[in-house]
DNA sequence: AAAGCAATCAACCGCGGGGTT
DNA sequence: CAACCCCGCGGTTGATTGCTT
């Protein structure tokens, strides 16, 4: 271990005093109180000054991932899942960058979601989760089902003050550009073809998207990794010869919408 | 009811980048 | 320019919880 090489005897004593493992309620309260009074940042000195027997690193992690007031707890919504799939396809394992676009969600949470849900499915299908095959599978089958869930959940409540609009090829497109969407629809492209699905998602990002030209204002997303060009690339001949075959499943049935989403292995078969 | 296993997620670790001295 | 320190990121671990037998 790298740290151990540097450890002096006095450091060792300090390390011995440091607590590890799960945080207690008292520690949480102490950290919250200290940050409320003094603000966050400068974690090492914060850790010492607060009286916590934790490393600065540990304090930072506890605050950012759990204690910070704007951290959301609970399951990811279908909208958030779509965004994660979308942004991961664009940026790969850039968890913190992805998290920046999901207000209230932490990189740790997103990473855990990816590893426990998405990668698990890829493993079951015996494909690499970064492979074109798997990405195409997500695009063709999983995203539409998530969209369906979203549609169902929003059909009853239509009080959104801001929204994302989504279709299954281009997961998300700018909602303020209805005309733009219409133009594209009428101007032929495969992406905006007849199976185009426009769904208004109630979504209220608290911060602007940042980075790589995907920035829009608080009310508008434009995230286009599955754009026309790379969709065409996916569909082109350099893909291994494969087909996903529905295992006699009626995808329009509610049973899958209501069930847990990630059961692809039951739904699909690979056919060489 | 209990044991064994799997899934989940909070927390830790190593590393690299950037700033400071 | 090198050495050091701090911070944040991504990968990994391990404790806890839930499920199955």
From TrEMBL:
<dbReference type="Pfam" id="PF00249">
    <property type="entry name" value="Myb_DNA-binding"/>
</dbReference>
<keyword id="KW-0677">Repeat</keyword>
<protein>
    <submittedName>
        <fullName>Uncharacterized protein</fullName>
    </submittedName>
</protein>
<keyword id="KW-0804">Transcription</keyword>
<feature type="domain" description="HTH myb-type">
    <location>
        <begin position="68"/>
        <end position="122"/>
    </location>
</feature>
<feature type="domain" description="Myb-like">
    <location>
        <begin position="68"/>
        <end position="118"/>
    </location>
</feature>
<keyword id="KW-0805">Transcription regulation</keyword>
<feature type="domain" description="Myb-like">
    <location>
        <begin position="15"/>
        <end position="67"/>
    </location>
</feature>
<dbReference type="InterPro" id="IPR017930">
    <property type="entry name" value="Myb_dom"/>
</dbReference>
<dbReference type="GO" id="GO:0043565">
    <property type="term" value="F:sequence-specific DNA binding"/>
</dbReference>
<dbReference type="InterPro" id="IPR009057">
    <property type="entry name" value="Homeodomain-like_sf"/>
</dbReference>
<keyword id="KW-0539">Nucleus</keyword>
<keyword id="KW-0238">DNA-binding</keyword>
<feature type="domain" description="HTH myb-type">
    <location>
        <begin position="15"/>
        <end position="67"/>
    </location>
</feature>
<dbReference type="InterPro" id="IPR001005">
    <property type="entry name" value="SANT/Myb"/>
</dbReference>
<dbReference type="GO" id="GO:0005634">
    <property type="term" value="C:nucleus"/>
</dbReference>
<dbReference type="InterPro" id="IPR044676">
    <property type="entry name" value="EOBI/EOBII-like_plant"/>
</dbReference>
<dbReference type="GO" id="GO:0003700">
    <property type="term" value="F:DNA-binding transcription factor activity"/>
</dbReference>
């Amino acid at each position: 271990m790298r740290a151990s090489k540097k450890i002096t005897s006095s450091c060792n004593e300090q390390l011995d005093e440091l607590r590890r493992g799960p945080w207690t309620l008292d520690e949480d309260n102490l950290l919250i109180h200290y940050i409320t009074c003094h603000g966050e940042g400068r974690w090492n000195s914060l850790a010492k000054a607060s009286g916590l027997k934790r490393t600065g690193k540990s304090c930072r992690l506890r605050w950012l991932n759990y204690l910070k007031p704007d951290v959301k707890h609970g399951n990811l919504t279908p909208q958030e899942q779509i965004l994660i799939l979308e942004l991961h396809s664009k940026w790969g394992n850039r968890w913190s960058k992805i998290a920046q676009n999901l207000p209230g969600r932490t990189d740790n949470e997103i990473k855990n979601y990816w590893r426990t849900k998405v990668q698990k499915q890829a493993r079951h299908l015996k494909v690499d989760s970064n492979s074109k095959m798997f990405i195409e599978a997500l695009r063709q089958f999983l995203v539409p089902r998530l969209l369906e869930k979203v549609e169902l959940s929003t059909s009853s409540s239509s009080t959104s003050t801001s929204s994302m609009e989504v279709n299954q090829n281009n997961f998300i497109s700018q909602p303020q550009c209805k005309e733009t969407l219409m133009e594209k629809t009428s101007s032929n492209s495969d992406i905006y073809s007849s199976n185009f699905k426009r769904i208004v998602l109630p979504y209220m990002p608290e911060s602007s998207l940042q980075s790589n030209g995907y920035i829009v204002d608080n009310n508008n997303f434009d995230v286009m990794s599955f754009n026309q060009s790379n969709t065409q690339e996916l569909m082109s001949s350099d893909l291994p010869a494969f087909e996903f075959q529905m295992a006699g499943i009626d995808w329009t049935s509610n049973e899958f919408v209501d069930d847990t989403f990630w059961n692809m292995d039951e739904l699909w078969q690979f056919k060489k």
